[in-house]
Specification:
Blueprint (H helix, E strand, L loop, with lengths): L2 E6 L3 H14 L2 E7 L2 H10 L4 E5 L7 H11 L4 E6 L4 H9 L4 E4 L4 H12 L4 E2 L11 H6 L3 H11 L4 H8 L3 H15 L4 H10 L1 H5 L2
Parallel strand pairs: 1-2, 1-3, 3-4, 4-5, 5-6
Helix pairs in contact: 7-9, 7-10, 8-9
Length: 209
């Protein structure tokens, strides 16, 4: 029995490599690839595969945003995260969000097939080489921010009020404040001054998708 696979990854060389391995295995078919989170969501509305291989860094949607949305709508879908981030903190976060496996992009053929075998059998898979000693640093915390939260941080750093931010990104001031409370919690800060300091120190992380 074949297992259908969706791949959401924006680098063609990775798509080609994964597709080749899966096709040669004789187990996985059909295989469809998408280079953006929005394209993936559109496809899922029409067809739900057995397995989703999901990159965390996509051009339009952070995988941290996509993962809980996908698992809420399609709880039976096995999701294997494919990423270059070897930080155990990030691996634990995506596991908490519902991922069924975490595979680093330096995988070999045997490791990819093992990962897929485990996630489809209900076992969690994590690449054995993860950095278990990484401290919770500001750049790692920035990784867990959603695109919307990054927008709000950047606009806050420019001195915009909640009303001005809401007008700029078409949400209410109340929603802006709700996002800001979530941002404080994620970053471990408690006031606007600390938020602005963070925004200036890690501006490159707020624009890196």
């Amino acid at each position: 029995m074949s297992l259908s696979v969706f791949i959401c990854e924006d680098h063609q060389i990775v798509i080609d490599g994964v597709t080749r391995i899966l096709s040669n295995s004789g187990i996985y078919a059909p295989i469809h690839a998408f280079k953006s989170g929005n394209k993936l969501l559109e496809a899922l509305e029409k067809q739900v595969p057995d397995i989703l291989i999901l990159d965390l860094n996509l051009p339009d949607r952070n995988g941290i945003e996509l993962l809980p949305e996908i698992k809420t709508s399609y709880p039976e879908l096995s999701v294997l995260i494919l990423t270059m981030h070897s930080d155990a903190l990030i691996a634990r976060k995506v596991k908490d969000l519902g991922a069924d496996g975490y595979l680093l992009k330096d995988f070999g053929e045997k490791e990819l097939l093992l990962a897929l075998k485990k996630v489809t059998s209900g076992e969690y898979f994590a690449s054995p080489v993860l950095n278990q000693t990484t401290q919770v640093e500001s750049d790692n915390r920035a990784f867990f921010l959603t695109t919307r939260e990054k927008e709000i941080i950047s606009l806050t750093a420019l001195g915009k009020s909640s009303t001005e931010i809401g007008d700029a990104i078409h949400i209410s001031p109340h929603t802006v404040n709700t996002h800001r409370r979530n941002i404080y919690k994620k970053l471990g800060i408690s006031n606007m001054k600390e938020l602005v300091t963070f925004a200036h120190a890690y501006a490159h992380h707020l624009t890196d998708q």
